Write the structure tokens for this entry.
Amino acid sequence: MKTITIAIDGPAGAGKSTIAKIVAQKLNIHYLDTGAMYRAVALKVLQQGLDPSDHEKVISILPSTHIGVTYQHRLQRVYLDGRDVTHLLRQPEVTKAASEVATIPEVRIKLVELQRNIARNYSVVVDGRDIGTFVFPNADRKFYLTATLEERARRRWLEMREKGYDQTLEDVKRELEARDKNDMNRAFAPLRKAEDAILIDTTGKTIEQVADEVCGYLREYLG
Ligand code: DC
């Protein structure tokens, strides 16, 4: 069976997941949120009382860590050791720990294998940091979404406020900056635009504008 893989990379707050969901719905295929997998590993590390920067300890729990995803009405649910943890993954401490555990090659290799297995069986819109460069270098189409740090921080701050988290805009901005640094400077599969990815700067654009732009490039798949 021929499957389609659409890759969307970029820094946090660039609009990847919102756009990926819209595109997946239009194409009637799955949206694969790879960040959620890194978040699930981070959640386990925190639940075990481990320090995410103690890489040896994190690596030691990997063999007994089972991450799985299922789809309900095309929305992804993430399972950690058999339990649905989807609702626990957006907490600020998990976000911070995810960026740290994502620097560990052993963590990445385990999760990349899972991502490739899913895409072998299903057509997917995948968002992440290394999707076009490392996970699916032969993806059918690749996009790299970005926006200024100020705009990304403002969007993330609004999102967190809506979810009831009490963080200041300055805190969110500082955390984003730290995360960008981790994601872009790690040695193994860092965040980078693939050469053949279409660059879209979403600064000052609405979700509809960006979605239209991406869908324009995907017209051949949208039929
Ligand atoms: O997209 P997100 O904010 O849910 O991602 C959480 C963290 O996981 C992010 O700081 C970087 C990491 N990540 C990654 O390294 N590679 C991916 N493909 C997806 C996420």
Remarks:
- The mean pLDDT is 95.
- The two ends are 19 Å apart (CA to CA).
